[in-house]
Design brief:
This protein is mainly alpha-helical. The protein has one domain. It has two helices and no strands.
Length: 110
Amino acid sequence: MKSTWDYSATQLLHQEGIPESAAVSKDESHVDPMTESGQHILRLIYSMIQDHQAETWAENRMARLATKHLQGALKKVSKTCAEVREKSNAIEERTEVEADVVGLKGHVEP
């Protein structure tokens, strides 16, 4: 299905049931705002622009929300990684200390 942006001015006139008249120039390069049909087509175009702006605003809002959620998730992942790194370092240090203790026990004579 075509969006409203895909239609020419003449097609919009037909779609709205407006008889093609002096509203649109022959080459469809401009709309004559002095005719009722021309005013109607300009209102349609203005409405389309407003709809498009509303869609764009909604898309931008959703993108900002998604970015915010992703940033929050990234902070949680970073925090979890830091905690895992700390625990890993603690285990490694404890393992080294235990190895040293075992090594000392082997050298101590009873």
